[in-house]
Amino acid sequence: MSAAKTRAALRTSSRVSLETLLVLLLTGVALWLLGRMWSVVWPVVIALLLTTLTWPLARFLRRHGWPPALAASVVTVLFLLAAAGIVVLIAVPVASQSGELADGVVGGIQQLREWAAGPPLNIGDDEVTSAFDTAVARIQDSVGSIVTATLTGVGTIVNGLVTAVLALFLMFFFLKDGPRFLPWLTRQLPGRLATDVPTVAARSWDTLGAFVRSQAFVGLLDAVFIGLGLWIVGVPLVLPLAVLTFVAAFVPIVGALFAGFVAVLIALVSNGPTDALIVLAIIVAVQQLEGNVFQPMVQSRGLGLHAAVVLLAVTLGGSLAGIVGSLLAVPVAALIAVFWNYLREQLSEPVPPAPDADRPAPRQPVPDQPGADRPAPGQPGADLPGGGPAGPGTDLPTARSAGPGEEPG
After folding, report:
1. Three-state DSSP class for 226?
2. What family is it from (predicted)?
């Protein structure tokens, strides 16, 4: 083993390890700063996602001569009307059948109690009353924690409303002044950055649009299949449940669980436990098909990511940041892929152009050999000294035109 090669390998490994630790340290600092500014970053992220969803309509209006401010205002109002319509579409049927649902819930609880009183559980009324009293006592002992949790929940709702309002205003400004951003950014950046950063930003925008469209398509598939299953079983409120499934699809994992729980609960209180189990089986089958087939295929095709990368990104995002991490995992992974692909394009060696097949190949120079350039006997230059054409080193005079003020030669 060579001692010099060993020392060189150790120095290289040490340098690479130090650079890796430095990159990880800077990444940690960047994530810490992002967490400190999350109250501002989160509305911007939501506004960007909403803008990618509504930009095609705004672009259509602008191309047909609408002023940017008017087009952005109309699209924002239409978005608010659509959101309000979805809420009304869900709330009105539920409110109209609230009495039946309440009676169904009471009847379901009574059936559950009668089932628990029989074999194999044999839970009597005294045991139920004792368990109820114990639960009440625990609730009374935990009044402080409940109040704290309630205040925390109220604060979360207020923050959510503020975030939603701020995101709507930002969406309006993005729709209005979005096309001006890249030219402005180009003017602000120096040198090579004036080309690289706008290019990466444009590609990132296209990637975000592909993510939102693919997520909407997957949510539409969930809503259609689950709604069709609920209609076949005969569960009421099919349309509100289908709309709720579509909206909840934009929040991975938790949204699907919430929509499925609501559908199973309504099936239980209206049709009984058998239909509730059938609905649960339908929802589980559709969610498995969507999570393992539709979503990876659609998102991998639209975002340029492999299906396994999509699954791993959602899992990692959920483990690191919960619901928000699951929601942002796929677009963040796609943006990282955009940056990496652009960096690889810039660092790769340019490919030499292929030779033109119609163009004749250049004549190769003849190697310097004795007599290689000697003309054949009888050709011009064959009788010159040296047997070759006249050139530097020959003693023959060369005729030329007389210049101004010179005698002819």
Report:
1. helix
2. Belongs to the autoinducer-2 exporter (AI-2E) (TC 2.A.86) family.
Q: Whole-angstrom Cα distance, residue 185 to residue 194? A: 7
Cα–Cα distance between 372 and 366 in angstroms, integer? 8
In tens, the pLDDT along 312-328 reads 877 787 777 777 777 77
Alpha-carbon gap, residue 316 to 219, rounded angstroms? 22
Dihedral sign (CA 105, 107, 113, 115): negative
Burial class, 133, CB count within 10 angstroms (exposed 0-12 / middle 13-18 / buried 19+): exposed
CA angle 98, 82, 225 (to 5 degrees): 65
Phi, psi of 377 (to 5 degrees): -60, 140
| Distance in angstroms (rounded) separating the CA atoms of residues 18 and 31 | 20
Identify the residue whose tokens are 């709330």.
91
Average pLDDT score over residue span 29-55: 84
Per-residue pLDDT of 195-223, as tens digits, reads: 888 888 888 888 888 778 777 888 888 88
Per-residue pLDDT of 106-132, as tens digits, reads 666 666 666 666 666 666 666 666 666
Residue-range domain boundaries for the chain: 189-347
**pLDDT one-digit tens code per residue, 349-393:** 666 665 555 555 555 555 555 544 455 554 444 444 444 444 444
Query: For the whole model, what pTM was predicted?
Result: 0.60
DSSP 379: S
10 Å Cβ neighbour count for 308? Answer: 10
Do you find a cis peptide bond into 385, omega within 30 degrees of 0?
A: no
At a CB cut-off of 8 Å and minimum separation 6, what does 203 contact? 338, 342
Closest CA to 214 of 102, 123, 304: 304
Tokens of 5: 């090669």
User: Is there a contact between 267 and 276 (Cβ–Cβ < 8 Å)?
Assistant: yes
